[in-house]
Design a protein that fits this description.
Elements (H helix, E strand, L loop, with lengths): L1 H17 L9 E4 L4 H4 L8 H8 L4 E2 L6 E9 L9 E10 L2 E7 L14
Antiparallel strand pairs: 1-3, 2-3, 3-4, 4-5
Pfam families: BamE
Subcellular location: Cell outer membrane
Subunit structure: Part of the Bam complex.
Length: 118
């Protein structure tokens, strides 16, 4: 009798685990999605208003240093067959409300060092 119960439980658990891929799980995006073409529009000496116009408001502004903005984006995949989880970030540094440096997971345009005024 005990062997039958264990066998039934084992078979039931195997059958239920086979159905695990049938459950739909959504992808969970968080943060600012930045397009590569928008990041390439950044130029040195842009004002904060111009950066907001191009990229939108940053996810995080440093509480102690108002001249550093963080754009973060994270995608947590619900199902592995849709791809891997990933995270991208971009940091923008300002001096006197003008862009001085941009670092992160995005490639800047070749014209980044050329200000818009020229």
């Amino acid at each position: 009798m005990k062997f039958k119960n264990i066998l039934v439980i084992l078979i039931t658990s195997l059958m239920l685990s086979a159905c695990a891929d049938w459950i739909f799980r959504i992808d969970v995006p968080q943060g600012n999605f930045l397009d590569e073409k928008d990041v390439k529009k950044l130029r040195i000496n842009m004002s904060k208003e111009q950066v907001v116009y191009v990229l939108g408001k940053p996810v995080v502004e440093d509480s102690f240093d108002h001249d550093t903005w963080y754009y973060l984006y994270q995608m947590k995949r619900g199902m592995k067959k849709r791809g891997d989880d990933f995270r991208k970030e971009l940091k923008i540094f300002f001096v006197d409300d003008r862009v001085t440096e941009v670092i992160g997971d995005f490639e800047l345009s070749e014209d980044f060092a050329t200000p818009l005024d020229q």
